[in-house]
Structures are given as structure tokens and as C-alpha cells.
Amino acid sequence: MKVRGKKTNSKLKIVNSTSKIAVLMGGIGEERDISIQSGSCVAEALRKADFNAVTADIGPDNTDILEDGSIDVFFIALHGKFGEDGRLQRILEEKSLIYTGSGPNASELAFDKMASKKAFAEAGLIIPKVIRFNEKREATEIESELPQLGNRFVVKPVRQGSTIGVSIVDDPKSAVAAARECSAKFGDCMIEEYIDGREITVGILQRQALPIIEIKSKTGFYDYQAKYIDERTEFLFDTIDDAALADKIAAAALDCFDALGCRHFARADFILGKNGIPYVLEINTIPGFTNHSLLPMAAAKTGLSMSDLCTEIIEAAYSSLIRRKA
Q1: Is the Cα torsion angle 69, 73, 76, 81 positive or negative in sign?
Q2: The domain at 110-126+196-301 falls in which architecture?
């Protein structure tokens, strides 16, 4: 597959080994452990590239690292609450600090699955049918609406990552029960049409769509277990033989990126339906950076090591600052 999008300037070297990078990780959400793994891998990669990289476990009540005037760039490796929902980005903006990834508005929009789906639909992208669950409504009333979504359903928290809290159910009564449980634990919840098809993902680096990865879980459900624990999960390249379809998916990923106003990097997730239509699920503004994560995997397919990938992202952060000042 062609790498699609705006070419990066790989010869641009604004940062160098004298630059000090603080990798922000940890956070307060359910993805804290994965964030620490991501941050550790980023720091290791940056040190291999001869950067002076330090790590900081950060949260709403612990932002002391942001007062360190010796830091040149803050590399955000937090997933979920505080790190990916725009809150940390707003603090960094208020302090006029250089940081990696999307800004506060795009981050907040991407983290809210209902809001991002609305933006995707307005941009002409195809999304699964969905309704927001309202716990105050009668169960029978909600059940009567669900057949318009189909006969199988995906219940999700509106603001959560790593498939945490997600369940697949086979009838309206089970969907409402699962939604009530999800809502009680995670807050706002949604019920989505189940799309029977292939799970695919597209990493994006500086407005380039990286090679498509198809994900095959042995259980048929790419949940937290399949993502981080089950070694049998397969991540496959070059499984879409139709070049026009592959280009269509890559273009859709970039459209997702642009629809939310993302920058630097992200990862767009799709279900490729049996009808050949790529349905947008979501976009992750801070995808994983572990040794088994999808964005580094896709970058490696193009010849970029983890050190190369992290350096490109830091270069993008500096470039954004220069454009704002221009």
C-alpha cells in the first residue's frame, strides 16, 4: 500500500541530542499501567537516539515536572483520562509549553465517542448507527428503538479507551442491561450497531497514512485481553488486495484526522464490513507506544524504528510551534 498524505520533511532537524525531553506517563485512568509501559518505551527510544530523556508520572494533583524550565519538549504518553481528554493539553497550552500530539480541543473531541462520531458523519465518513444510552428512560422504550440498529449490538462507554467496558450482545434486552451496568461504572454510555467484518487500523504520522494493519483476535473480539495479554492475536499487513479500497481506507483515516483537527500523529480504527464499506469507529490521539503497539508497528513497516518515530513526533511538535509564531 502506498503511504498516503502530506510528505514529512525528514531532513528537518530542529531538535538534537542537547534537547531535553520529558516523557509524561501514568495518569489517573484505567489505562494507567499501559501508559507507564508506553512512556518507558518512548523514553528508551529517545535515549537510543541520544536525547536527554526523563520520565514523569503525572496526574491532576502532580504536575511539578511542568515547572522544570530545562525541559524543551513534553512527550505525552498518557492514555485515557487526563492525558487524552484535553485536560493536560490545556494546562500545557496555558503555560506556553511545547508538547507532542493533538491540541486540547481535538483531544477532547476524539475522546468523546459520540461527539467524534458526529464530526465524522458531518465530514461525510460512514459510521455505525448509534444511540446514546439514557439511564432515566424505561428499558422497554429503549429496547423498542434498538432494532433500527440491527440485531446485534456493541455497548461502550462514551469516554474510555483500550476497549475497557465494551461488550457485544445479541438482543435488545441484553443491550439495555449491559448499558445500565456500563453506565453505572463508567458514566455516559452508548449502544452501537454491530458491524460484521474485519477489524483494521491506520496509523497517521504528520498527515501520512501508514500501512493498514488487520487485527485478528483468536476470540473474535479485540478486547483488553486480546490487545495486551493474549499472544495469539495477529497483526497483519497487506491483507487488502484491492488497491483502490486500501487507498480509500487510507484517505478515510486522514479525513478522520482532519475532521477533528488532530496534529502530529494518531490512529484511526475501522471495521471493514462484508459489504466492502469501511466504517469509522474512532480515532485515538495518543495510541500505545509499547513494543507491541500498532502505531510503532505500522511505522516499522515503512522503515522507521521506534527512535525514528519518536524523533519525528518531537520534530512535528517543534514545527507546530514555528508555524504558530510565523
Answers
A1: positive
A2: 2-Layer Sandwich (3.30)
